[in-house]
Amino acid sequence: MDKMMILVIDGCAPEYLTEETAPDVYALARDLGFVKTVKSAIPSVTNVNHACILSGRFPEDTKVVGNYYYDPMTREEGFIEERGFMKAETILQAYKKAGKKTALLTVKGKVLGVYGEGADIGISVQTPEAGLLERLGLSAPPEVQSPESTRWIYEAALACVREEDPDLLYCTTNDFVFHHHGPGTPEAAEQIRWMNEYVRRIHEADPERRIYITADHGMNQKHRLINFQAMADRRGLRLYCLPPLKDRYIENHIYQEGGILYVFLENESQREGFLALAQSTPEVERVLASSQAAAEFHLPADRIGDYVMLAAVDCAFGEVEGERLVTDAVRTHGSLYEQEIPLWAIHPEESEEKYEYSKDVAAIAMRRKGK
Description:
It is a single chain. The chain has helices at 23-32, 46-55, 59-62, 91-97, 109-115, 130-136, 148-163, 176-180, 186-205, 228-234, 271-279, 290-297, 360-368, and strands spanning 4-8, 33-39, 68-71, 76-79, 102-106, 121-124, 168-172, 210-214, 220-226, 239-242, 260-265, 284-289, 307-311, 315-317, 324-332, 340-346. By secondary structure, it is an alpha/beta fold. Helix 5 links the parallel strand 5 (102-106) and strand 6. It starts with a strand and ends with a helix.
């Protein structure tokens, strides 16, 4: 298996990553590979797309449909932060099975918790291992929500390549800055400038390594938030609304806001009442039965409730006080409008037209190796 690095820039919409913001890496990709825009899986949230990028498969196979889960039979719910949820083999596991060295580096600890099986080296900004940091010559990391956490994880990636030379390096950042700062801002430009510097240095340290740079999802400004659970409760509709984007990083999602919602009906006789409310709510762009959403977005129908709702372009579902909130302070993701993401490749395995989704990086690599 060829040596490879997959870098997932959390929340990186294509507008953030350009020739102007990352000139060195752009030139490398242009000359040695390609620069294009591809799609993420839906929902366009973190856990879903790490599962897809790592396995080369859609959620219908990975069974990961969000950052949060709900069991309508037991009413159990909680954050997805540990192993057992991911049901598809990852490229980390495939490389390890072939006797190759693997590494998973992440800012958010949950990524290592959910997907760390198969990683010989695991580094998390949130839960660093002192002995490993000492071995790699790394200082203690900053706080997870610090903008500097991105720079630190890139420094760790460079040290890992130089000191450990893993055959597969999977590295991901944190989208805290992109949740608060749009393209063209100094804060966002700094994040991409660090990527440009460290990927260039990683390429210089290992010029033949395949490098893929993509994102788990995009990011957009939202101006209107609705609390659909509150709207349904006030009308006497018995249902449970699950926001797939919901996670512990409340600094990123102060209202747990996102562009998609899974709806579990508790009373079948209220189906028409739910549909009437959903279809008459202007912030709701589409209402899909679970079977329709499963077919369109390659989702497991038994894990996404009875209906899937998608928000309109500048709207999101959120746990706001009351039913609605108008705001200029929210940047988020989850819907079809955050599905477009960048894919830059240095020494790719296939020509650029073979890559339509971010998951295709692993799909192609594992298929070519007979995995």
